[in-house]
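Let us practice reading a record.
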Amino acid sequence: MSILNNSTVQGLAADVSKQVTDAGYELGEVGNFADEILTETTVFFPAGDAVAEAQARTLADKFSGVAKENIQALPEKAMAEGAVTIVLVNQ
């Protein structure tokens, strides 16, 4: 799972990554997402992957966001099979 910061809060992705690993999720890339400005925290999942979609919906609820299929602007690592990516906005 990748966690990317799309907010003005410095270190937000790093802070959330600790919560995610403490909850038992395997952590991938942690960094910034500056390719697009999102209006709400979004958990992305690969199209057609029911397991990843269920995980994304659970995480979206946890972080008061939404779950959506991957978009092309995500980093390549985030587009891996079964990968879920949290893109955080100001919370």
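A brief commentary: Residues 34 and 49 are 26 Å apart (CA to CA).
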